[in-house]
UniProtKB/TrEMBL annotation:
Main location per the UniProt record: Golgi
One Pfam family per UniProt: Glyco_transf_61
Organism: Gossypium harknessii
Protein name (Swiss-Prot/TrEMBL): Glycosyltransferase 61 catalytic domain-containing protein
Membrane topology: Single-pass type II membrane protein
MF (Gene Ontology): pentosyltransferase activity
Length: 517
């Protein structure tokens, strides 16, 4: 309500500025009675005349108590987010979401990186009367009056985490009156809007890079159809390289380091901050054209396909040549291999690793899968990972940030997430539910205590094993220390085999060649 109130006050524009300027003039000059009467008359005329010419509109407002006036409210989208439409010369900030703030500036917008500021110059009040009164106020008070609005924002989507937000650079958004005769130069003039956001915080973790950055960037900017330029706070060159394929499909323009580029960039519109919907999710009901997570996945497809098309074609041709050379007079070997569904195991080292991974590979192959073990590193090119998972039918992995790669799978594929002790809630919230929204066939495999390495470290009746929620509810640090950092998994393959058999049937419609039970 505070921000709505501030916005409504600004909306009155020149009317209130005239009265305030008169007050400042009286306070400094002590004019004679005749001057006071003259200026008061002019002020009243300035304020009342616009309302006289819009009498019908004013009367309709007076009659709108308790009844919606169709002429006034009917054209407003009641479902539209705050600040969805603002006039020139205004700053509007939507701080209603618990995950992020987002501000909009429209008009003469200019960056000023030395002061970590974005400036908006408004010339609305430079009419003859206000300019005349302004000229009679001393420089100190005039400079103070030139600032019309001042907002602060940290453009990162973890607003609800003070500890991480303390690490994010803050921007000052300032609306100023553009004084006559003062020239504000532009070093770079852009004919497209700007979107300004931070790549600080948890950047470096794949889940957060997509959830807190890439997907909100898509949500916020995709409607510009690439006619937008991105400015980054907490700029990281490796991030720009890593996600360059995606960024190039959201913007036709090079990314700009907000602090590192000292030039004054000028726009007619800027968005500071990003909108976020939910965990790894695009909520179609909140999008202008009902885009969903499937549309985001299609964007990934367009982004990575040019990079991997040639590699896939070469690999497929080599495979065909090899198989045909085995028995060139018979297609039986080739046909059988072609029907084998592809299963990718996302392998981990250290915490939450599958200790009997080799046995899992053997079991999966015996069941009829073509198995690939993928061990992505921090520096592994995303296009290569996309290439593997885009062609897969099933993905298996233990809960962790690497499960974000489910976004690379085709709808209709099977995603099996191994859920260690104490990770049931984040596994479902961060990956299980979003995977279903993408159209994947999601299977969550909750391990038994005897499948956890913690079984050898604690007594069988210890709450760590019998009641993990009693620890996880104490906070993230307990979950991280006990269940994420100190736990590995040894799958009971007879039990896990049921999930493999289910996945095989989902993909092929055929019961697997062999079953462990």
């Amino acid at each position: 309500m505070v921000h709505h109130h501030r916005y409504n006050l600004l909306k009155k524009g020149g009317d209130e500025e005239a009265g305030t300027l008169l007050f400042l003039y009286y306070r400094r000059r002590r004019p004679n009675l005749l001057s006071v009467l003259f200026l008061s008359l002019l002020s009243c005329t300035f304020i009342l005349v616009p309302h006289l010419f819009s009498a019908s509109s004013s009367l309709s407002h007076l009659c709108s108590f308790g009844v919606q006036n169709e002429g006034f409210v009917g054209n407003i989208d009641v479902n539209a987010p705050l600040c969805s439409s603002i006039p020139n010369g205004r700053i509007c900030c939507d701080r209603s979401h618990f995950r992020s703030d987002i501000c909009f500036m429209k008009g003469d917008v200019r960056t000023h990186s030395p002061s970590s500021s974005v400036l908006l110059y408004s010339s609305k009040s430079n009419n003859g009367f206000i300019s005349y009164v302004s000229s009679m106020i001393d420089d100190g008070e005039q400079e103070e009056r030139d600032e019309l609005q001042h907002e602060k924002i940290k453009p990162y989507t973890r607003k609800w985490e003070p500890s991480i937000m303390d690490t994010i650079d803050e921007l000052d958004l300032i609306s100023k009156r553009a004084n006559l005769g003062v020239h504000h130069s532009c070093d770079v003039i852009h004919n497209v809007p700007a979107v300004i956001f931070s790549t600080g915080g948890y950047t470096g973790n794949l889940y957060h890079e997509f959830n807190d950055g890439i997907m909100p960037l898509y949500i916020t900017s995709q409607h510009f159809n690439k006619k937008v330029v991105f400015f980054i706070l907490d700029y990281r060159n490796w991030w720009v390289i890593k996600y360059g394929d995606i960024i190039s499909h959201l913007s036709d323009h090079p990314v700009i380091d907000f602090i590192g580029d000292n030039r004054t960039h000028c726009f007619t519109e800027a968005i500071i901050g990003l909108r976020i919907h939910d965990e790894l999710t695009v909520d179609s009901s909140l999008m202008r054209s009902n885009e969903s997570i499937v549309d985001f996945r299609n964007l990934l497809d367009r982004a990575y396909w040019p990079r991997i098309r040639g590699l896939i074609q070469e690999e497929e041709q080599e495979t065909v040549d090899k198989k045909m050379s085995i028995n060139p007079t018979s297609g039986s070997v080739f046909d059988y291999q072609a029907r084998k569904p592809k299963l990718v195991i996302l392998s981990r080292n250290g915490s939450r690793a599958i200790m009997n991974e080799n046995s899992l590979v053997k079991t999966s192959e015996e069941m009829g899968f073509q198995v690939q073990v993928l061990r992505p590193e921090r520096t592994t090119e995303l296009a290569k990972i996309y290439r593997s998972l885009n062609s897969s039918d099933v993905m298996i992995g233990v809960h962790g940030a690497a499960m974000t790669h489910f976004l690379f799978m085709k709808p209709g594929s099977v995603f099996i997430q191994v859920i260690p002790l104490g990770t049931e809630w984040p596994a479902e919230t961060y990956y299980g539910e979003p995977a279903r929204k993408l159209g994947l066939k999601y299977i969550g495999y909750k391990i038994k205590s005897r499948e956890s390495s913690l079984f050898d470290e604690y007594d069988k009746d210890d709450p760590v094993l019998r009641n993990p929620s009693s620890f996880t509810k104490k906070g993230w640090e307990y979950t991280k220390k006990i269940y994420l950092e100190d736990q590995t998994v040894r799958l009971e393959l007879r039990r896990f085999g049921k999930r493999l058999a289910r996945a095989y049937y989902c993909i092929t419609g055929i019961h697997p060649q062999s079953s462990l039970e």
